[in-house]
């Protein structure tokens, strides 16, 4: 049995008089969480709609479980692929339980009655997504984060090996975003599912995805996040957005024309990491050579201190930044 759940061959996607992405030879594999990253308007939703069979390819083809998507009946498709579209309006008068049970539609009879097995699956979907506690509430009464988890529960109730989510973490706060990514990781860890999500959350995607699909030059580069970081493809894809990738902190930052004080940070503890983060935010330049100021960071797990230019002892990052500002002003 192949590990490939979905495959595209020379696929082009777009609209009648406009190709958005082309030459796409992509794979979604079992046991993998893939994140689709790209700037606004680069074609993520267009690709997702094409992979889900909602929109026709302009060229090439999509293969799902070894069969061309064109030949898969709607009922079979619903047993193989579930789709979560963030901005789709969900009827507020449905209860959470009612919405999640809609996920069982490919399996129920024409009368739509739920069997014991259907009910077990719904129960599992509610439990794993942590939405059981509000099963009887109406969708309209939920927060965005809760609603998003319910939409994922509905997709899970559909029991498909492929789940595609278009921006599932848009509108969510940081803890909820992390929780959703954590849930998606748990879902792929069972080994038989593949999950594709499109997101603007680059840092969380780098930390959690097994693979990235990176929109660049009207096509897509794919690879492990770390490979795309190290060979510079990730940074290149976002340079137009005015972002630069900070390789030591592993995250994107707004590219600034930085003429701040050059600072050498000595130390490799967690405190050194956060010192660098604070210094960059404040406009100082962490450097390896020819510093104007040297900071030694000490951290033995219980006490932290910073020694500025081998003399001045400082106990908080806030105080350190104040001292560096004073130092910089004196030098001008
Ligand atoms: N129905 C349509 N007809 C023609 N062009 C369209 C249509 N829908 C979207 N487009 C265009 O296709 C391009 C890709 O749009 P798409 O929505 O796929 O991008 P996206 O990467 O999902 O964007 P975002 O991150 O902003 O959601 C855009 O230039 C958009 O204007």
Brief description of this entry?
Helix content is 33%, strand content 28%.
CATH topology name of the largest domain: Rossmann fold
Radius of gyration: 24 Å
As a percent range, the share of strand residues is 25-35%
User: Helix content range of the residues, please?
Assistant: 25-40%
Oligomer: single chain
Order of SSEs, N→C? EEEEHEEHEHHHEHEHEEHHEEEHEEEEH
Q: Which class of secondary structure composition applies to the elements?
A: alpha/beta
The largest sheet, given as strand count, sense and whether it forms a barrel, is:
6 strands, mixed
Strand order of the largest sheet: 7-8-9-4-10-11
Bound molecules: adenosine-5'-triphosphate
Question: What is the CATH superfamily of the largest domain?
Answer: P-loop containing nucleotide triphosphate hydrolases
- Kindly provide the name of the CATH class of the largest domain: Alpha Beta
Low-confidence stretches: none
Per CATH, the architecture of the largest domain is 3-Layer(aba) Sandwich
Shape designation:
elongated
- The number of strands is 18
Whole-number mean pLDDT = 89
Total of helices: 11
How many structural units, i.e. domains?
2
Rounded to the nearest angstrom, the distance between the terminal CA atoms is 68 Å
